[in-house]
């Protein structure tokens, strides 16, 4: 998975529809999430599309699998995941993921329907990291 900095460098260079294509490409690059993990327990609430996030790993290295049934939303999920992927749980628990995503200016680049679930995705990731870090 690409780093958030690498993605931003490319994203910043692009405009309009090219940014959408990049998001779709990022979504396609996500690790395959088995259908068996796409359950009500892994479903992110508040998203206009269906989004699933499944945490794995341990306190030293969190890892997430994610998927969505909508291409652009899946790209947004990939952005969120790239901000936290394979980092220590304590770091992710303290991280301001929204600030890390701020340079992408998603609220002004995409419709509110596409970004409305982002805070819920971030909350789910941070809650899992906090729980793992405290164990």
From TrEMBL:
Residues 15-127 form the Fe-S metabolism associated domain. Signal peptide: none annotated. SUPFAM superfamilies: SufE/NifU. InterPro entries: Fe-S_metab-assoc_dom. Belongs to the SufE family. PANTHER family: SUFE-LIKE PROTEIN 2, CHLOROPLASTIC, SULFUR ACCEPTOR PROTEIN CSDE. This is Fe-S metabolism protein SufE.
């Amino acid at each position: 998975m690409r780093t958030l900095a690498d993605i931003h460098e490319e994203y910043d260079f692009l405009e309009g529809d090219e940014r959408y294509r990049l998001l779709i490409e990022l979504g396609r690059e996500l690790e395959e999430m088995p259908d068996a993990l796409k359950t009500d327990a892994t479903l992110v609430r508040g998203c206009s599309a269906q989004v699933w996030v499944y945490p794995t790993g341990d306190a030293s290295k969190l890892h997430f699998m994610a998927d969505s049934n909508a291409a652009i939303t899946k790209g947004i999920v990939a952005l969120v995941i790239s901000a936290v992927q394979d980092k220590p749980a304590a770091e992710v628990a303290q991280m301001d993921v929204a600030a890390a995503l701020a340079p992408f200016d998603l609220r002004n680049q995409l419709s509110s329907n596409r970004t409305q679930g982002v805070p819920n995705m971030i909350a789910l990731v941070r809650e899992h990291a906090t729980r793992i870090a405290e164990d």
